[in-house]
Each structure stands twice: as C-alpha cells, then as structure tokens.
C-alpha cells in the first residue's frame, strides 16, 4: 500500500512539472506572436507612408470601357481629383458614385493598383438608342456684324456664319437618349466615343414630356417589323411616327401604345392598296377604328387587318 502511494506522488509531481512547462511555452508563443504582429503592423504603416504610394497625375489612372481605353484628357474631364494625393486616402466608392452621376455612364467600379501605384476604373456606358432633338426651331445668328457679310449678296451667308449656326444648334438642341429615356448631351457622348456610330432613330420634343412612356414605346418599336425613323412629340396631344408606311398619328400617349404598334404591323398591306404619295397619314388614335387619311381629304376606312 505504501508503494502505491509513493508512486502516485511521483506521478503527480511529474504532471505538475509538465504543466508548468506547457504554460511557459504558451507564454513564450504569445509573446512571440505579439511581437510578430506589432512588427508586421509597423512594416505596413511604414510602407503606406512611403512617398511611392502617391497618385501624382492622371497617367497613373487606367480607365476603360470593355476593350476601349480612355485618354488622359478624357480622364481629367471625368474625374475631379487633386494631385498629388495619397493612394490610401482616395475613396474608390466615392469616385464610382461621382462617375455614375455622369449622364453617359451607367455603372463604374474603382480599385487601387499597388504595383505600379494607381487606380483602375471600369465603366459601363449608356447605350443610346435614339438621337433626341428638343425642337425643330433653328437658331439664327446675326451675321450683320461680320464685315465680310456686306460684300456678299443678301441671300448668301458667310460660310463661317453657317458653321457657327450649326454648332450652336447642335449644342443647344441635340442629344441622345437610351432605352430608359436618360438624356445624354451629344458632345459628352462623342467625346467618349469619337468613332462611335450614332443611332438612326430620331425623336423630337421635350424629354421631360415623353420620358414617362418612352421605355414602353421604344420596347414596342424595337419588336416591330415596321421601320420607324422618327418620333415627333412636339404636340403633346398627338404622337406622330414617321414610318416606312407613312406618317402615323397615335394621339395622346397611353397604355394602348403597344396595341397601336401591333396594329400598325398588321397594316403592312397598305402600300399594295395606296400609292406612296397618296397616304397623308394613318390614324391609329382609336385602335378599334383605324383609318387612312388620303391627300384628297377623304377618310377611307381600312379593312380589318
């Protein structure tokens, strides 16, 4: 019995010694981890405050849309940044939000680039579906102050005056709209896409007036087999489409627009019944009673499509 007690005491003493060693090892490991973490944090802070992590010029920024990469001049026009600026003080989300406020940009993502220091910006541009003109009224510029105008005949304007008139008219009256009715200044779009192809569809009128139903109208037209070249909304009580069949009067825009466009498709047989110059306009204001107005000022009811 005494031998069993003696063995147990030695075993307990050995276990206590082993536990003390384990505690010492854990304390050493904790101290080592603390020093390692502090050293790593100090190294990161030192690296961050180095002058190499500074945005000094737009040349350090890469901005692209798909395969298209924009020039420094375009980057300067789109970004409002002060130089030089610490790369770590720049807020990518704030830059992305400011870019998305541009009428030609739908989405933007901004990320820091460490080697070499800079920014990478990916943007998604709005796709224009129509050329928009606010009014058909042409701007007139007084050329009487031009000394050379007195040397020309009264019906002839100097060439530079015509160019000025055209430029002013485009800047004031022309723009582009996408499938959601968002207006884009023509100059801003062409500055980003100098070789881009402009849409063939044209819309005339105030964007504020036709924007509420534009998405519905454009979707119906894009699915139609009848070619539409112009949408005229200068008269809010009568929406007019210029189509391959002739002018089409739709009246006040309403929820019937898709039905009116479908009915227009069903009237593709009209050129076989009327000469192209005989139709003055197609009246679809009431889809239940479509009619064709001919040049002889006589209403001829169309047959059921």
Note the run of SSEs as H and E: HEEEHEHEEEHEEHEHEEEHHEEE
Class computed from helices, strands and strand pairing: alpha+beta
**Cα-atom radius of gyration:** 36 Å
Distance separating the two termini: 115 Å
Please give the number of β-strands: 16
Identify the strand order in the major beta sheet. 9-8-7-10-11-12-13-14-15-16
Total count of helical runs of at least 4 residues: 8
Largest β sheet strand count, sense and barrel closure: 10 strands, mixed
Percent helix range: 25-40%
For the residues shown, what is the average pLDDT? 81
Task: Indicate the overall shape.
Answer: elongated
Per DSSP, what share of the residues sits in E-state strands of 2 or more residues?
15-25%
* Low-pLDDT sequence parts: 138-170, 298-305
Please state the second-level CATH architecture of one domain.
3-Layer(aba) Sandwich
CATH hierarchy class name of one domain: Alpha Beta
CATH topology call of one domain: Rossmann fold
What topology emerges from the helices and strands here?
Blueprint: H1 2-48, E1 54-55, E2 61-65, E3 68-69, H2 72-78, E4 85-86, H3 92-100, E5 105-113, E6 118-125, E7 128-133, H4 159-173, E8 174-178, E9 183-185, H5 186-192, E10 202-204, H6 207-222, E11 228-232, E12 240-243, E13 246-249, H7 257-266, H8 270-273, E14 279-283, E15 291-294, E16 299-301
Parallel strand pairs: 2-6, 7-10, 10-11, 13-14
Antiparallel strand pairs: 1-4, 2-3, 5-6, 7-8, 8-9, 11-12, 12-13, 14-15, 15-16
């Amino acid at each position: 019995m005494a031998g069993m007690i003696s063995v147990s005491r030695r075993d307990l003493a050995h276990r206590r010694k082993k536990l003390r060693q384990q505690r010492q090892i854990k304390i050493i490991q904790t101290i080592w981890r603390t020093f390692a973490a502090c050293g790593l944090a100090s190294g990161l802070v030192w690296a961050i405050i180095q002058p190499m992590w500074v945005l000094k010029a737009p040349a350090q920024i890469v901005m692209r849309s798909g395969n298209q990469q924009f020039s420094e001049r375009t980057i300067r026009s789109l970004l409002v940044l002060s130089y030089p600026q610490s790369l770590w003080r720049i807020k990518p989300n704030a830059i992305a939000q400011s870019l998305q406020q541009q009428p030609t940009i739908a989405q933007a993502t901004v990320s820091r680039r460490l080697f070499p220091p800079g920014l990478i910006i990916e943007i998604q541009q709005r796709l224009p579906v129509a050329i928009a003109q606010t009014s058909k009224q042409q701007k007139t510029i007084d050329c009487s102050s031009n000394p050379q105008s007195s040397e020309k005949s009264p019906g002839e304007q100097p060439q530079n005056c015509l160019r000025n008139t055209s430029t002013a008219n485009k800047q004031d009256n022309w723009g582009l709209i996408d499938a959601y009715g968002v207006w884009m200044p023509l100059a801003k779009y062409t500055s980003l896409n100098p070789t881009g192809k402009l849409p063939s569809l044209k819309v005339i009128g105030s964007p504020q007036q036709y924007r509420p139903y534009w998405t519905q109208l454009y979707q119906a037209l894009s699915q139609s087999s009848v070619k539409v070249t112009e949408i005229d909304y200068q008269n809010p009580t009568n929406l007019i489409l210029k189509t391959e069949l002739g002018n089409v009067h739709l009246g006040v825009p309403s929820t019937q627009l898709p039905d009116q466009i479908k009915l227009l498709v069903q009237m593709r047989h009209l050129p076989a019944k009327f000469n192209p110059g005989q139709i003055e306009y197609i009246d679809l204001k009431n889809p239940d009673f479509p009619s064709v107005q001919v040049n002889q000022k006589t209403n001829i009811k169309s047959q059921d499509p």
